[in-house]
Amino acid sequence: MIKNKKISLVLPCRNEGTHLKEVLDRIPKTIDEILIVSNKSTDNTVEIARRLSKKDRRIIALEDNRTLGGIGYGYAHMTGIKKATGDIIMGADGDATYPIHDASKIVEYMLANNYDFISCNRYPLQDGVKIPFKLQLGVNLLNWEILLLYGIKIKDTLSGMWFIKQEVRDELHLTMGDWNLSPQIKINAARSKNIRFTEYGITQDQRLGETKQNYFKTGFNHAMWILKNRFVKF
Ligand SMILES: Nc1nc2c(ncn2[C@@H]2O[C@H](COP(=O)(O)OP(=O)(O)OP(=O)(O)O)[C@@H](O)[C@H]2O)c(=O)[nH]1
Ligand SMILES: [Mg+2]
């Protein structure tokens, strides 16, 4: 609980078995519910999540094996967000990159300023934080694309950490099962008349485990989706 609010955390995971326990060990006790949603993992992610859920009652092991173009990041988040029972639903990656330990100060800021959705922003980078230059450039191009097409100013279109007040969860109208859930959740939150949206600066840590990300392919796919989505009725 943070300020008397129940906090749920959704962790989409594909093949994060080697370090899942370490990621979970780092999660503060203030998080009341941890929904680990595996998507087509071929390692022991699901077994580890199930085993840990027997020891820690906060953990719920889920699977959503639907994919779009081979990716299920968005489906995993949609399932976790739907099943979460908290007053505030957090999202983060299962690779220890996002500062889940900062949840208290971010939720306090959210409540004090009456925001409904906070997207955590990694830019400008803090000293010592390494994000590949091609990723930084790609994020910047997508931020500009969103500003030009939608008139929305977002500093980190591809952040994987956010906080949603449960009462606005259905206003997000999430549909993208692949990586495009990430820009979709921010664009829809910022566009909705019923959602008070802001960004909050964070620092990012080094990934545990190997990266499987294809930055160019994913980035190009984002650029095309952001353009096409502009012509879809919201
Ligand atoms: N690759 C992949 N990851 C998924 C999928 N579904 C859920 N995930 C998880 O989504 C989170 C973000 O994926 P990452 O592989 O860390 O992608 P990224 O953060 O863009 O890139 P790196 O951290 O640099 O590898 C991780 O927790 C993954 O385990 C999926 O279908 N494919
Ligand atoms: Mg990552």
Number of domains: 1
- Identify low-pLDDT runs: none
Average pLDDT works out at 96
Major beta-sheet overview: 7 strands, mixed
Shape call: globular
Secondary-structure content class? alpha/beta
Succession of helices and strands: EHEHEHEHEHEHEH
CATH topology: Spore Coat Polysaccharide Biosynthesis Protein SpsA, Chain A
Tell me the distance between the termini.
Answer: 34 Å
DSSP summary, beta strand count: 7
Protein architecture, described:
With 234 residues, the protein is an alpha/beta fold. It has one domain (7-127, 156-210): Spore Coat Polysaccharide Biosynthesis Protein SpsA, Chain A, CATH 3.90.550.10. The protein has seven helices and seven strands. The chain has helices at 20-25, 45-55, 73-83, 103-112, 133-150, 181-191, 215-229; strands at 7-13, 33-38, 59-63, 88-91, 117-121, 162-165, 197-201. Strands 3-2-1-4-6-5-7 form a seven-stranded mixed β-sheet, sandwiched between helices. Strand 2, helix 2 and strand 3 (59-63) form a beta-alpha-beta unit. Helix 5 packs parallel to helix 7 (215-229). The longest helix is centred in the middle third of the chain and has 18 residues, at 133-150. It is globular, with a radius of gyration of 17 Å. The relative contact order is 0.18. The mean pLDDT is 96. The chain binds guanosine-5'-triphosphate and magnesium ion.
Main features:
7 strands, 234 residues, alpha/beta, 35% helix, binds guanosine-5'-triphosphate, Spore Coat Polysaccharide Biosynthesis Protein SpsA, Chain A, binds magnesium ion
